[in-house]
Amino acid sequence: MNEAKGLLKLLGWKVENKIKDQMPPKAVVLSVPHTSLTDFFIGFFAYRNLGLKAHFLIKKEAFVFPFKKLLYRWGGIPVNRGKKSNIIQEIVNEFNTRDEFLLTITPEGSRSPRPRWKDGYHRIAKAANVPVLIGYIDYKTKSIGIEEIYKLQGDAAYDTVQIMKYYIGMEGRNPEKFVLPKEVYESAKKDNVAKS
Fold first, then answer.
1. How many Å apart are CA 165 and CA 190, to the nearest integer?
2. Which of 29-43, 69-83, 93-107, 151-165 has the lowest mean pLDDT?
């Protein structure tokens, strides 16, 4: 049993990769819900448990001594958030220069309640021509992992609603900070009617 698996088991967490046999070498991995800094550490150990290397975006100003080496080792990717920078192209370049690259993104963009997600995850996946993986961290069931591969349909608003439906019923560490918009529940209700 590796250290990551042992620690998560001790803390009562279950790690799942439901697409293990179909795991793409490159993808944008969503990490939802994101309501606490604790999510980073649970997620980090979950990746280790699955034998995967996570990457995440962090402002370049954070890459200073004594944190620089540690951030790189953990999978940090420095980005320039200046007005004239092209973050999407910077990230696409990262995808293009690597054989394997799993970029983890929290589409909520904040640990505060945010029913409207940012579309950066969609623009990155589309520009890099990689799939989106439905990653989750559910404190209600103490389960974390990868649920499914989602292939973008093209429209960010449509895709986001479809993706959000995977997270109905899940809870963040701070449940009151995870909010989905009303149309997600309405769309899920229509899906259930269509299936019956």
1. 12
2. 69-83
**Do 5 and 15 meet the contact criterion of CB atoms below 8 Å apart?**
yes
DSSP string, 40-81: HHHHHHHHHHHT--EEEEEEGGG--TTTHHHHHHHTEEEE--
CB 148 within 8 A of CB 139: no
The H or E element containing residue 134 is strand 132-138
Query: Are the C-beta atoms of residues 32 and 136 closer than 8 Å to each other?
Result: yes
Distance CA 7, CA 2 (A): 9
> For 14, how many CA atoms within 13 A lie in the half-sphere containing its CB?
8
pTM higher than 0.85, yes or no? yes
DSSP code of residue 105: E
Neighbours of 31 (CB within 10 A): 22
Measured distance CA(183)–CA(40) in Å, rounded = 29
**Angstrom distances, CA of residue 194 to CA of 57, 148, 167:** 39, 22, 20
Give tens-digit pLDDT for 131-146: 999 999 999 999 999 9
- Domain ranges, ordered by start, for the chain: 3-195
Q: Which structure tokens are listed for 186?
A: 């309405």
Using the 8-state DSSP alphabet, how is residue 23 labeled? -
